[in-house]
Amino acid sequence: MSLVDDLGLPGVVRYNRQEDMPFRRDEAWASFRGSYGMVYRATRRSKEGPPDEEDVYAIKQIQARSPKELMNVAREIKLLQQCRHPNIIALVESFTINTDGFRSTTCLVTKPWAPMYLEHLIFELDGSGGCQSSCSWFKAGELDPWPSILLQCLSGLKYLHTQKPHPIQSGTKI
What's the pLDDT tens digit per position in 94-128? Predict the structure, then answer.
């Protein structure tokens, strides 16, 4: 029995080896380091040929090194299991690999995949005048599409803060 099992989170699958999981890392894309782990692009192992957008996932791989970090992972899984909104990532699956005491690898499979995170996009646009290939839709000096992006972000935030019976806010306990 692992600590992830002890947390009693439904839907967290356990694989003995990385090769057992039904997703494969897409090595053609870079991974991103976040505050708790790495995020990389993945596709289903059962699909042959080039993936279409429906077969592309983001996998956040988290190394929990303490009981507190493991509780934060459990909190994130529980919150994502509750969220159903077009402007919030969707949790497809969560699983652990080779869990050993407090040192576990937990993976959150989400949709959609994005080639960068929002903070990186904003800094890239700010420093480049919008000429980078990763944001070809951006036109320097033009307002579009920022009102739409801002509206979508605020719509997702409103959803989180109006959940009943418990709004999802910073510091929400599981």
Answer: 988 865 555 668 899 999 888 777 777 777 767 66
Angle among Cα 91, 83, 30 to the nearest 5 degrees reads 35
pLDDT (tens digit per residue) in 55-83 = 899 999 988 777 888 888 888 898 899 89
What share of residues in the chain are helix, strand, coil (percent, to 5)?
A: 30, 25, 40
Using alpha carbons, select from 13, 14, 24 the residue that is nearest to residue 46.
24
The model's pTM is 0.77
The tokens for 2 are 């692992």
From the list 117, 16, 104, the residue with the least C-alpha distance to 58 is 117
Please tell me what DSSP assigns to residue 78: H
Residues 159, 32, 42, 121: is their CA dihedral positive or negative? Answer: positive
